Amino acid sequence: MAVQINPSILSADFARLADEARAVEGADWLHVDVMDNHFVPNLTLGVPVVESLSRATDTPLDCHLMIEDPDRWAPQYVEAGAGSVTFHVEAAAAPVRLAREIRAKGARASMALKPATPIEPYEDLLPELDMLLVMTVEPGFGGQAFLDIMLPKIRRTRELISKHGLELWLQVDGGVSASTIERCAEAGADVFVAGSAVYGADDPAEAVRALRTQAEAATATAGWACNH
C-alpha cells in the first residue's frame, strides 16, 4: 500500500488557512481536527471552516472528529466537503450504522481509537471501515510527544487487517515526526498525520516529501508490507 502523508492544520496558522493548505499541496490529504471542548478539552473549528477549506484547496480533507455525538454530526462534514470522516468509537452510539451512513454519502469512513482503547473488541467492525486511526497521543492538543507504547497496538491492528484480507488504511496521529515515522511504518501504519513536523518546518512542502521518503524506506523493509 502506498504511504500517505496528511499534514494537520491544527499546527497551521488559523488566520491563513487557505495559504497554509496551499503550502502543502504535495500532501495526500489535509487533516482537519474538529474538537468540541466536550469529548476533548479543546475547541477548534467546525462545519463552516471545513466548507470554506474544501473550496480553497484541491487537496482532499481528512476530518477527524473529536466530538461527542458523532452519529448526529459526522454526516454534516461529508456534506461540507470532507473526503474522509473519522469518528471516535468511544463517542459513537452505533458505529456500524454511522460508518455506513458516511460511506452512503460518498466519503471514506474511518474509526479512531484513543490510546487506552484496544482494537480487539472491534475486529468484526473492520470490514465496515475504509481506515482505522490509532491515536499515538491523547487526543486534544497538538505538539505532544509520541507514545511508544502504541507501537504494539499498531502491529496488532495490522495483523487483524491482514488476517481478514482487508484493503483498510491504518493511520497514526500524534507525535509523528522524522524521529518516529519509521517506527510507525515498520509497525504497520501507512497513513501518517503530521502537524508540528510539517507546519513547524521552514518549508512545509519539503517536510512532507522528507517524511514520505522516510516512511517509504521503512515500509519497503517491513515484514508486514513484504507479506502483503
UniProtKB/TrEMBL annotation:
Q: Alphabetically, which GO biological process terms does the record hold?
A: pentose catabolic process; pentose-phosphate shunt
Q: Which residues bind a divalent metal cation?
A: H31, D33, H64, D173
Pathway per the UniProt entry: Carbohydrate degradation
The active-site annotation reads D33, D173
| A Pfam family assignment | Ribul_P_3_epim
Q: Which domain of life is it from?
A: Bacteria
Q: Which cofactor does it need?
A: Mn(2+); a divalent metal cation; Fe(2+); Co(2+)
Q: Which GO terms describe its cellular component?
A: cytoplasm
Q: Where is substrate annotated to bind?
A: S8, H64, G140, F141, G142, G143, D173, G174, G175, G195, S196
Under InterPro entries, the record lists: Aldolase_TIM, Ribul_P_3_epim, Ribul_P_3_epim-like, RibuloseP-bd_barrel
Q: Which reaction does it catalyse?
A: D-ribulose 5-phosphate = D-xylulose 5-phosphate
**What EC identifiers does the entry list?**
5.1.3.1
Q: What keywords does the record list, in alphabetical order?
A: Carbohydrate metabolism, Cobalt, Isomerase, Manganese, Metal-binding, Zinc
Q: Which EC class is this protein assigned?
A: isomerase
Q: How is the cofactor bound?
A: Binds 1 divalent metal cation per subunit.
Sequence similarity: Belongs to the ribulose-phosphate 3-epimerase family.
NCBIfam families with a match to the protein in the record: PRK05581.1-4, rpe
Q: What is this protein called?
A: Ribulose-phosphate 3-epimerase
